[in-house]
Input
Amino acid sequence: MKRLQGRACVVTGGAAGIGEAIVVRLVEEGAHVAVADVDGERAQELAERLSGSDGEVLAGRVDVSVPSEVADFVERAAQAFGRLDGIVNNAGVAIPGSAEDISEADWDRVMSVNLKGVWAGMKYAIPHLRAAGGGSIVNMSSVQALVGFPGWAGYAATKGAILSLTQQAAVEYGPERIRVNCIAPGTIMTPMNQRIFETAPDPDSLIASWNASHALRRFGESAEVAAATAFLLSDDASFVTGTCLRVDGGLTVLGPSGQAT
Ligand SMILES: NC(=O)c1ccc[n+]([C@@H]2O[C@H](COP(=O)([O-])OP(=O)(O)OC[C@H]3O[C@@H](n4cnc5c(N)ncnc54)[C@H](O)[C@@H]3O)[C@@H](O)[C@H]2O)c1
Output
């Protein structure tokens, strides 16, 4: 029996990068998955690619910063699968800028996708998880919730808030057997980071310095974040709630002497 056999989950930002790897992994583990992404075409292509798997896959164009779109999609998924057991609030955008430099428009944008989007996913999934007798929520935070990186004020603020929201909701919904956890990935090579490297003045030295900032001296793979997500959604994590699982190759425990090598 597969670990997530017959479970139904929504994955936001599931058309590319970490989200895509999560969708693939959940389907491999037997889950039915609803892929919500602002890139509806790519989400649809992924659903078609995975058709014929054990788990059913449906896709929709959803902008998570618009709560009514999240509400409609969660409802559609619950109707299609007859239940909902989990949601992975993964969609996010990386908008740089220090506290001084970031524009108000960029601040509002990063807050509304990264933070309001996670809240909306939780708000509209929780009644379905309750109806299923319990469930699991996984929110995508970042190492930026735990340590500071210059130039990412708004993004880091959203990821710290996701960590606090996760802890708060774990306490609030624990009595109803709804577990709420978040993941703090280190650097994962995805389209998000490819875009950062493409626009860097010296991509090779940026890549080398980012590699060196992890104890494992390498970037992570999306599949490694997907494996952690599948664990948190599964009964293997039945006593795990309110935690922030670092999937960061040791980035947050590496001291300055480690970086000298
Ligand atoms: N890549 C990393 O190194 C890294 C590290 C820590 C945390 N994260 C977090 O992991 C998550 C996924 O990152 P990624 O690197 O895979 O990003 P990505 O840009 O490669 O992919 C993000 C996906 O989300 C979708 N998306 C963007 N805005 C959306 C919106 N408003 N509504 C719905 N979908 C939307 C995109 O279309 C895309 O399919 C993000 O929350 C990110 O902050 C990434």
In short: The first strand starts at residue 8 and ends at 12. Residues 12-13, 15-19, 37-39, 62-65, 90-93, 113, 140, 142, 185, 187-188, 190-193 surround nicotinamide-adenine-dinucleotide (CB under 6 Å). The CA atoms of residues 90 and 140 lie 5 Å apart.
